[in-house]
Input
Amino acid sequence: MYGGGYIHDDQKKKPEMQAEDPVLLAEFEARIARGEKIEPRDWMPADYRRQLIRMIEQHAHSEIIGALPEGTWITRAPGFRRKLALMAKVQDEVGHAQLLYSAAETLGKSREDMINDLINGKSKYSNVFNYPAKTWADVAVIGFLIDAAAIVNQVANSKGSYGPYCRALERICYEESFHLKQGHSVFVYLATGTPTQRAMVQDALNRWWQPIMHFFGPSDKMSQHTETLMRWKVKMASNDDMRQQFLSMYVPKIWEIGLTLPDPNLKKNPETNQWEFTEPDWNEFYEVIKGNGPCNAERLAVRRASEERGAWVRAALKRADQHYVTPLA
Ligand code: FAQ
Output
């Protein structure tokens, strides 16, 4: 079945049959309904395990690939303080990937398999990181709005059902809140700066708006997994609900500062209390997540190269591990 993690004895014998065992399934669903956390050694349906691996693994890949667009700005950040803050932020994102890979490993897929699936283009990662960070203002938009979007998603899902994922999300959210402050500080600085700085942040906003709208996933009527994931409390809100929450929290902040958003139809309907907007181009979204976005090839090439460059370190560690003799007490 899966690589390294713990598989319940019942599932080792006959995973498919046991996954459909009505008694075990009913007990499992009752635990979820009571709001209990599911832990790695507990029985779980095979599909719950599969869905969690898919989602946590994609999330981990997003963090590690997500370090790349901003990472390219570390050497060009304007000033020492901005450089320090950005460097710390990028390191945090890679740390989030480590936490998430560990959470996914508890479900039985090895880290090696996950990394291989990433660099071979088999696994997905967030659409947003397949766009270039062209100017310093892109760093502001990523740090402010993409971190904000990630927080909306992760705060909700940290209340979900799978213990290791929820605990990882809680920790990640603390750090993401700091990232948001960092992004907001750069964003406001540019937006209240010279006309050139203001134009630069407006341009970045215009380019990132659609990818950010895509970030929450396809609309609920097109989403494949939402229904199952919400039933099992892996996802605690639907894609559309999270997108609405993000719009309510952040559009006013953008408008307040006098910037505009590239959607003439964006407005909150006072009767429904829902945001209305031009439907984003979903063809572009599907092309990007299939591997055909502006930077997909470049992002994976960087990951592949760093995997190859690090191979000798992993081999040396493995050898050291084999030859290590526990000292006598
Ligand atoms: N990008 O049925 P649904 C961050 C795929 S972390 C790419 O609605 P689901 C931190 C989806 O996988 C960002 N693919 O899917 C940071 C599925 O394809 P599959 C990542 C997407 O799972 C900040 C298909 O479309 N966060 O940013 C996307 O119910 C700044 C159908 O979609 C997470 O991963 C997308 N945006 O809902 C780092 C959070 N949306 O797998 C650096 C955890 C959908 O069947 C700098 N994940 N797809 O082949 C989730 O909450 C969910 O997986 C969703 C998608 C909401 C992303």
Q: What stands out?
A: The chain is about 65% helix and 0% strand.
